[in-house]
């Protein structure tokens, strides 16, 4: 890979700045500087140059799901989302049988080891279940839900030890406390798909959980006499939380409230499923059939089942629906998830020495071009 450079407005050091030259070489950003005259070979853009997006909760897209346990499926997902500006992901699984979960993790680990430039990089695995509460299962297969099992997690981690591990669990279920205390420091525990109350969530934070999965969705809401899991997140001094910013999972006003109460602690996620990028219609999610219509994915009973959101669209919604400034929103799709996933030393910023993960956004938040580890993402 030879040297390439981009020139235009860019999000650098927390602000949108004009006349920025971003130079990439050998998969890294080798220079970011304000220049009066860019070199002749630089790609000049009227869009906004931003760090590649990081999605810590993503199941699939373009017809593929990480639960397919198929390397081609993984490649499809990583290419599809890279075209929409996402250059790093925590591949996310669903509640499933032990055998299916182990197969999915094995395939994700292999795809992560491949790490092909020009597609999104897998830096982590997010197990969304199976240690959740069946009463708040959302679209997760209830027959696969089971008590937390330290042995099962030991074996899964051993099959992908170099990846960052995120586990979404319900703190009130059998074995949750022992699991969190056992893996504390090695696994990022996220509270979600829970029927627990405020006290349950506060206790889980004390045991070592530090994150909330799709805040507001599949958890107890905030009441002024019982603050619920949502209240525990919003009052916490250090916990981080995901928001699905499609404008349906969470009202735009609530997207603003969460961003205000958890400054630099909200990570935008897509929770995208295989239908993302395809026509509306019927699709399989592990265990269930879902219907995509009017931009939302639902079970037959109306329960939301992931999303068909891309991260570029999530960013657009935070600006256009929630009314937040772009300078506030970009870090929620870049720096914040990089920090949560432990890759902030090389991802999430346009800075010398960082991975050459870059997206160029048009004024309407389409992705004009994207680069993943220096290689242009091809349609
Ligand atoms: Zn999910």
Write the layout of secondary structure elements.
Layout: E1 4-12, E2 15-25, E3 28-34, E4 43-51, E5 53-58, E6 60-61, E7 64-65, H1 71-83, E8 86-93, H2 98-114, E9 121-128, H3 150-159, E10 164-169, H4 176-183, E11 187-191, H5 198-207, E12 211-212, H6 228-235, E13 240-244, H7 252-261, E14 266-269, E15 281-285, E16 288-293, E17 296-298, H8 311-320, H9 326-333, H10 335-340, E18 358-361, E19 367-372, E20 375-376
Parallel strand pairs: 1-4, 5-8, 8-9, 9-10, 10-11, 11-12, 12-13, 13-14
Antiparallel strand pairs: 1-2, 2-3, 4-18, 6-7, 15-16, 16-17, 18-19, 19-20
The protein binds zinc ion.
Can you walk me through this structure?
- With 379 residues, the chain is α/β, with parallel strands linked by helices.
- It folds into two domains: 1-51 and 349-379, Urease, subunit C, domain 1, CATH 2.30.40.10; 53-347, Metal-dependent hydrolases (TIM Barrel, Alpha-Beta Barrel), CATH 3.20.20.140.
- It is built from ten helices and 20 strands.
- The chain has helices spanning 71-83, 98-114, 150-159, 176-183, 198-207, 228-235, 252-261, 311-320, 326-333, 335-340, and strands spanning 4-12, 15-25, 28-34, 43-51, 53-58, 60-61, 64-65, 86-93, 121-128, 164-169, 187-191, 211-212, 240-244, 266-269, 281-285, 288-293, 296-298, 358-361, 367-372, 375-376.
- An eight-stranded parallel sheet has the order 5-8-9-10-11-12-13-14. Strands 3-2-1-4-18-19-20 form a seven-stranded mixed sheet. It has a three-stranded antiparallel sheet with strand order 15-16-17, with no helix packed on it.
- α7 (252-261) links the parallel β13 and β14.
- α5 crosses α6 and α8 (311-320) packs antiparallel against α9 (326-333).
- The longest helix is centred in the N-terminal third of the chain and has 17 residues, at 98-114.
- The radius of gyration is 20 Å and the shape is globular.
- Bound molecules: zinc ion.
């Amino acid at each position: 890979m030879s040297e390439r450079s981009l020139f235009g407005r860019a999000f650098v050091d927390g602000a949108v700045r004009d006349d920025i030259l971003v130079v990439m070489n050998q998969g890294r950003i080798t220079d970011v500087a304000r220049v009066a005259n860019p070199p002749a070979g630089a790609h000049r853009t009227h869009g906004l140059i931003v760090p590649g997006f990081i999605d810590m909760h993503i199941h699939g897209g373009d017809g593929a799901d990480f639960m397919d346990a198929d390397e081609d499926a993984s490649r499809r997902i990583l290419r599809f989302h890279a075209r929409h500006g996402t250059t790093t992901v925590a591949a996310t699984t669903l509640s499933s049988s032990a055998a299916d979960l182990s197969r999915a993790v094995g395939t994700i680990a292999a795809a992560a080891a491949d790490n092909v430039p020009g597609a999104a990089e897998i830096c982590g695995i997010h197990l969304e279940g199976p240690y959740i509460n069946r009463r708040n299962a959302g679209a997760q297969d209830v027959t696969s839900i089971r008590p937390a099992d330290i042995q099962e997690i030991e074996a899964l981690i051993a099959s992908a030890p170099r990846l960052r591990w995120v586990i979404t669990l319900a703190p009130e279920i059998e074995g949750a406390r022992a699991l969190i205390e056992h893996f504390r420091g090695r696994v990022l525990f996220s509270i979600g798909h829970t029927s627990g109350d405020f006290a349950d969530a506060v206790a889980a934070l004390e045991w070592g959980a530090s994150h909330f999965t799709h805040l507001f969705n599949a958890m107890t809401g905030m009441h002024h006499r019982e603050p619920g899991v949502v209240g525990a997140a919003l009052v916490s001094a250090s916990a981080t939380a995901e928001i699905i910013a499609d404008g349906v999972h969470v009202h735009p006003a609530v997207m603003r409230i969460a961003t205000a109460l958890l400054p630099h602690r909200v990570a935008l996620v897509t929770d995208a499923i295989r239908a993302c990028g395809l026509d509306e219609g019927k699709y399989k999610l592990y265990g269930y059939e879902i219907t995509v219509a009017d931009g939302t994915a639902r079970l037959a009973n109306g329960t939301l089942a992931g999303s068909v959101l891309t991260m570029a669209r999530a960013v657009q919604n935070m600006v256009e629906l929630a009314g937040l400034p772009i300078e506030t929103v970009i870090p929620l799709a870049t720096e914040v998830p990089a920090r949560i996933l432990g890759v902030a030393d090389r991802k999430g910023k346009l800075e010398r020495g960082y991975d050459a993960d870059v997206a160029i956004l048009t004024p309407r938040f389409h992705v004009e071009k994207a680069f993943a580890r220096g290689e242009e993402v091809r349609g």
